[in-house]
Amino acid sequence: MKLVCNVEVVNRLHANVNIRSSGKYLKSTLALGKEPKRDKDFFLIHFSSANKSGNKYRIKCIKQVFVKCLNEGKATIRFEEPPHDVCIKSEAIQLKCFLRLLKSCITGDADNSQLSNLSNISVTSVESAPIKMTIRDRSEFPIKGFPRTLEYLYLAGLKICNFRRDILLLSRLVLLDLSNNEIEKFPPEMGRMTSLSELYLSKNNLGLNVSVDWRWLLGPKITKTLKLLDISDNKIKYLPKAIWKLERLVTLKVNNNEISKMPATVGRIQTLRYLDISHNRLESLPCSLLQCRLEHIDISSNNFNFSTQIQLKENNLAAWQLYINSLTHLASKIVLKHKLFYAPNIIPFTLVEFLDNANMCICGNPVVSDEYYVIREFELKDYFRVVVFDNNRNSSIRFECFFCSSKCYIK
Ligand SMILES: [Zn+2]
After folding, report:
1. Mean pLDDT, rounded, for 126-134
2. What SS3 state is found at 106?
3. Three-state DSSP class for 298?
4. What is the pLDDT of residues 204-234, one digit of tens each?
5. Which residues surround ligand 1, an ion (CB under 5 A)?
6. How many CA atoms lie within 13 A of 34 on its CB side?
7. CA of 355 to the centre of ligand 1 (A)
8. Is 395 in a helix, a strand, or coil?
9. Separation of 393 CA from ligand 1 center, angstroms?
10. Does the keyword Nucleus apply (predicted)?
11. Dist. CA 135–CA 155, nearest whole Å
């Protein structure tokens, strides 16, 4: 038998050490049942929104049942072990029926027809509410769609061409593995997934189109939760400038692509610790990276040895171009430096974009112009703990350096 009611569980142990209970009644279901093969072993199970797998109490452990306010639809069941008081608020008649059955369980003359086996009564049994799913063959896709309870979903190597939109409904999804498929694009709605923390998209076709729509990666929710992004082996030619918006990103794998230039904004991701940019076409790196506290960077198999295309135009650059430029530039630097709030509803959208795309000086201060920079070499080993680079070269790498002031330029 089940009783739909509101329940507050008070732990008497907590009361002893003066930790007050929250005083909150949760919408719950109480069920009475018995262990499958043991006829006299009765249980009370408490399901709530906070505990969907249910809390099991042995009827034998009931110490007392308080029914003083039964006519108001209130009762409390006190258990010896665990030391819980289960306070129930429900419709009075139903509660009376429930307690009558409970009484017969205690006295041992319960009518079997009203009590189901424990295995049958769970509201949401473990089988119907899985949190992990691995699909190894396309025939294994669930007909009714993915269970909403999923937190880990593995769909690797299934030759999927189109992103399955029912994945967007999985609000609890923490890990999504779609590596080794044939996906070219993701819907922008993906950026609103609320819990996504690890995203494995290696070996797909994300960079196949000339212009990549990156909105799926830069949405309002995903930028707050994503910690690992693997977009290696995707024929990607460039990364979006707004990648710095991934404010929790720790691991970024963009190896085995066709990237010739990293966005200068990448160093603004303060949480970044592991960066794999090996097997690309990079000739230099943005100086903002030196501001990252990277623990591991793999830069092997790039074009750092070639310097043909990089022209040293340092001598032609005036201080004005490098770190003064225009009044907008000066004002923007102040806005960014002091982290003043800005949004498209306060200032023009073009200005928002301008501020969003800001680079970093070698000192870490914002620089808004990305037109003028100076190439300087830095020894990567001086900056990062583990650097993986090609055997036949030293670890000094050319950096595109931006400057916020003459002081930084002279240094
Ligand atoms: Zn500076």
Report:
1. 74
2. helix
3. strand
4. 999 998 888 999 999 989 999 999 999 999 9
5. 361, 363, 365, 404, 408
6. 21
7. 17
8. coil
9. 29
10. yes
11. 5
Q: Per the structure block, which two tokens stand in for 99? A: 């307690």
**Cα 336 to ligand 1 centroid, rounded to whole Å:** 13
Do 131 and 151 form a contact (C-beta atoms < 8 A)? yes
CB 6 within 8 A of CB 30: no
Interval 342-352: pLDDT, tens:
888 899 988 88
C-alpha of residue 239 to centroid of ligand 1, in Å: 25
Reported confidence tier of residue 22, pLDDT bands at 50, 70, 90: low
What spacing in Å lies between the alpha carbon of 218 and ligand 1's midpoint?
28
Preceding omega of 220 cis (within 30 degrees of 0): no
The domains located in the chain, with CATH, are 2-126 (2.30.29.30), 127-305+383-393 (3.80.10.10)
The pLDDT tens digits of the residues spanning 45-67 come to 888 877 777 888 888 888 889 98
Expressed in angstroms and rounded, the spacing between residue 248 Cα and the centre of ligand 1 is: 25
User: What single-letter amino acid sits at 328?
Assistant: T
The 3-class secondary structure across 125-190, one letter per residue, is CCCCCCCEEECCCHHHCCCCCCCCCCCEEECCCCCCCCCCHHHHHCCCCCEEECCCCCCCCCCHHH
Which pLDDT band holds residue 151 (cuts at 50, 70, 90)?
very high
pLDDT at 124: 46
Tokens of residue 19, six digits: 């930790």
pTM of the model: 0.67
Tell how far the Cα of 410 is from the centroid of ligand 1, in angstroms: 10
